[in-house]
Structure formats: structure tokens, C-alpha cells
């Protein structure tokens, strides 16, 4: 007898007989599996705890985004008086500034007060990557949730997601590492003085507002690119995340050092191949003793979908970590770290309301262009 398994279910004697053919999974059938607290598409299960974590962070980003829009609109429409609350969490969308801030923190011995939250958040996500693999991608990132939803839609429409040829997939997966490498090279090539000058530059002081205006005043070309990426995510599971996201590339490299992995007990595996179908990274879980590849986002879908108890588990070699534990640990970590950053005064931006109004009023001048561009123009 094959019994669906979740980390919280009672231990059941596993079936050891190998299947001659992989189990079929009809992706056009959606349901909520109450027994395993999971969203079920065909025979593939996604833990409700992971979905809850993703939804929590997505709603949090929506609230932060709304607060930031209210703040920026007030900057444009008022000339005096206190501005509305500026949510530091918006700096979570400035990972490059966060990385630069971390290096500058090492160089200067103190954290910059331009975008300190960006540095605090990216360091938190890196630490979580060491512990729970690419948990940022599989449990936190709103873009990841949106991408996975589009992939589920694709499976419902077409009965499957599509996959480029192996050679092309390999080349495309390398793009995000090239993009990450470019950013890291640009940051590390800067001396300590140049790095600090960039962080305190007029450009960086309004980089979060420039980011917002990029999306609010998106060009036709930008809109077409977003639509292409969305359509690609319907056809190919995790199109943006798999091929182009440098943030995911960084988290993948960090996760390679994690002691938490997906492990498989070959003695109880029945070769149903559901784990391979469930894996959004298209890894061959069914033939691996442990998943060590950097593409693994630690989503736990392969474990949740495995029909034989204790055949797959995520954790160390001897101890499993349940989706509930991961979700709760991630949320508590966010609350603890951001709360501590507030307590120690390294969370809020130090710019006064008058300074912000001045910088935004002059934001379109050459002084607020990307540092180095004006000098390059003069050299020509």
C-alpha cells in the first residue's frame, strides 16, 4: 500500500517494491489536501506552510510598497511639514546597494545610514541561505510565488511545463551567474574610498525612489520585457528565476555550503519519479542520495509529494526539518533581526524630510545620474 506522507504524519511501513512505470500526475486537477495541509495539483503537493510563508512575505511587500508610494507622493506634493512614514523594508529591493553596504561596513567599521536596511536584509537572507538552502527563493521572494503560480497555470493549460534542450538549458542557467559576476566584479573592483563615495552619492540617496519611478513610468519596451518574462514563466517553470535572477544565483552559491539538504533512502524508494516531476528546478531527485546542486531552492515539494514515508526528507543526514519548522523559523528570524536593527539604530534611513525633498526635486539632474557616467562622458 502506498501512503502519502508529510513530515507530521505517523510513520507507516513503506512499500519497497519498485514500480515498473512512473506514476502519472494529472496537472489539471487541483485540490486542497487537508490530511497533509498542502495544495495538490495532480499528485504533486506543495506544503501549506510554504505557501503561507510566501503569502505572508508577499502581503508584507504589498503593504510596504503602498506605504512607500504614499511617502514618495507626499514628497512630490508637499513643500514643508513632516512626511508620512518611510518603510525601510522597501530597501529589500536594493540588493546591490545592500551588498555594497556590507562591504563598506567592513571597510569603515560602521553601517551606512543611507540604505542600512538593504544591508541588514541581504545579510539576513544570506544567513538563511546557509541554514535552509535557497529559502529566499522558495519561501520568501514574492517574484518566486508569482512565477510558481504562472507555472501552475501553464501546467493546467498545457498539461505540462516545457523544457529547452539540455544544452540550451545549461547555457541559459549560466546567464544569472554571469550577471551576478558582473555586479560582484564591479563592487569588488572599487576601492574603499570609491565605494563609500558611491554609497553617499546623490544617486544612491534616491535610488529607491528611482526604482519605484521606473515601474510607475515603465516604457513600452519595459512593459514588453515584463510580459515576455511572464509568458516564459507560464511555459518554463521559473523562467526568470532559473535563467536571469542574480539574487537567486547568489543564494544558490551560499546554499551550496548548507548542511540542510534533501536526502533519499534508496532502500524504500519505489521509483515513482514523482519527486522529479515536483522539483521546480528539474533536478533528478529520484536517482540522487542527496541533493547538493545550487539550483535546489529547498522548497520541499519533492518531499511533500513522495508517497512513501521517510523515503525523502529535508534536513541533515540524521534529522528531518519539517516545512512548519522552516516557515516559523524564517518569520521569527525576520522579526528578530529587524527588531534588533531598530533597537540598535541601524534600520532607518538618516535623511531628513528636507533633504529628501531637495534630492527628489533635483533627481533628474546630471548630479543624480549613476556615478561614473558623467566622468565617462567628459572623457569622451
What is this structure's SSE topology?
Elements: E1 30-33, E2 38-41, E3 44-47, H1 48-77, H2 95-108, H3 116-132, H4 135-140, H5 142-158, H6 166-188, H7 192-199, H8 202-205, H9 207-216, H10 220-235, H11 239-243, H12 246-255, E4 261-264, H13 274-278, E5 290-291, H14 301-305, E6 312-315, H15 323-343, H16 353-361, H17 373-379
Antiparallel strand pairs: 1-2, 2-3, 4-5, 4-6
Helix pairs in contact: 1-15, 2-3, 2-7, 3-12, 3-15, 5-10, 6-12
Notable characteristics:
single chain, three-stranded antiparallel beta sheet, 54% helix, disordered C terminus, elongated, mainly alpha, disordered N terminus, 380 residues, 17 helices
**Number of beta strands:** 6
Please report the number of helical segments: 17
Largest sheet: 3 strands, antiparallel
> Percent range for helical residues?
40-55%
Percent in strands: 5-15%
Rg: 23 Å
By secondary-structure content and strand pairing, the structural class works out as mainly alpha
Helix/strand order, N-terminal first:
EEEHHHHHHHHHHHHEHEHEHHH
Low-confidence stretches: 1-14, 374-380
Q: Report the average pLDDT across residues.
A: 92
How far is the first residue's CA from the last residue's CA?
A: 75 Å
Shape: elongated
How are the strands of the largest sheet arranged?
Answer: 1-2-3
Looking at how many chains there are and whether they match, the oligomeric state comes to single chain
Question: Could you characterize the architecture of this molecule?
Answer:
With 380 residues, the protein is mostly helical. It has a domain of 245 residues. 54% of the residues lie in helices and 6% in strands. The protein has 17 helices and six strands. A three-stranded antiparallel β-sheet has the order 1-2-3. A three-stranded antiparallel β-sheet has the order 5-4-6, with no helix packed on it. A hairpin with a 4-residue loop joins β1 and β2. α1 packs parallel to α15. The N and C termini lie far apart (75 Å). The N terminus and C terminus are likely disordered.
